[in-house]
Amino acid sequence: xxxxxxxxxxxxxxxxxxxxxxxxxxxxxxxxxxxxxxxxxxxxxxxxxxxxxxxxxxxxxxxxxxxxxxxxxxxxxxxxxxxxxxxxxxxxxxxxxxxxxxxxx
Length: 105
Fold this sequence. Notes:
Structural class: mainly beta
Number of helices: 1
Distance between the termini: 25 Å
Number of domains: 1
Order of helices and strands: EEEEEEH
CATH topology: SH3 type barrels
Shape: globular
Helix content: 10-25%
Radius of gyration: 13 Å
């Protein structure tokens, strides 16, 4: 697993009332944990730092989706349900740029 991989995980609701299996983007991982960005098909939720992904054979998505960089979670690696695909080099570069903008780095 590496930065830019798209995986399936039980992503927590923001109120911590539960979770739902959904795609997420790997931002970083250690031997125990992985930090992820939420991916949503709700395109009307788009914020300035979100990245629009078009489904293709490389990323494995079924619908146009937003990488929601303001919706992050760090979870235990054992919670990963599988790998869908990966981002292109250009998409990953845009993610990194938008994270710098979001966190004012």
